[in-house]
């Protein structure tokens, strides 16, 4: 079991990744092709939960929401992510004390208030302490789809191993220190990949629970390769892939 002193935020893995798109019917067919199943709908918002194994993907179509504005700026994308924590109030307060910027998310009547801080590219990083069948945020804020399996096996995907951040040149250290300072991440490895014309630097960061892994990628000096292309197409830093 992880020593609380080594895991001051009480991290316990990923809870969900949130997605949004400025165009309708872009994300859902893709997720279904990948084996995800819509298992729940939000009680009052245009938000759906897609699931495969223990992986939760939230599709947020709510107009004038943080997700909608993010999608308008970046296109179809991962617009937020959530970490499981032992105590969300403690984790949120500690994050703010350490310099994190809060994100205020509109909460309707009888809805849970989900604490969130500003993460990569300005996307919300939620801190969730309600998880597990029967006591999760979905049991309170969502209605499960009749006859849909609770944890569909899909194509055999079971959990999120890691998700990457592509960052601007010179910003990799900033984001490494962000995760180190707030969440006690450690660097597993740091490597440079150099080709004839392009190259990149990468720092593989991992949380003290061993369940959250976030590689940080930065374009090498004097290079215009895949990281630079992503930043131009995406219009900023963000989550580049999930595996």
Portion of residues within helices? 10-25%
Morphology call: globular
Stated plainly, the CATH topology of the largest domain is called: 2,3-Dihydroxybiphenyl 1,2-Dioxygenase, domain 1
Q: Topology as H/E string? A: EHEEEHEHEEHEEHEEEHE
What is the domain total for the residues? 2
Rg for CA atoms: 18 Å
Q: In CATH's first tier, which class of the largest domain applies?
A: Alpha Beta
Could you please describe the fold and organization of this structure?
This protein has 243 residues and is of the alpha+beta class. The chain folds into 2 domains: 11-144, 2,3-Dihydroxybiphenyl 1,2-Dioxygenase, domain 1 (Roll); 163-242, Roll (2,3-Dihydroxybiphenyl 1,2-Dioxygenase, domain 1), CATH 3.10.180. Helix content is 21%, strand content 34%. It contains 6 helices and 13 strands. The protein has an 8-stranded mixed sheet with strand order 6-7-5-1-4-3-2-8. It has a 5-stranded mixed sheet with strand order 10-11-12-9-13. Strand 10 and strand 11 form a beta hairpin. The longest helix has 12 residues, at 172-183. The mean pLDDT is 94.
Task: Provide tags for this entry.
243 residues, 2,3-Dihydroxybiphenyl 1,2-Dioxygenase, domain 1, five-stranded mixed sheet, 6 helices, alpha+beta, eight-stranded mixed sheet
Task: Provide a concise account of the structure shown.
The protein is an alpha+beta fold and 243 residues long.
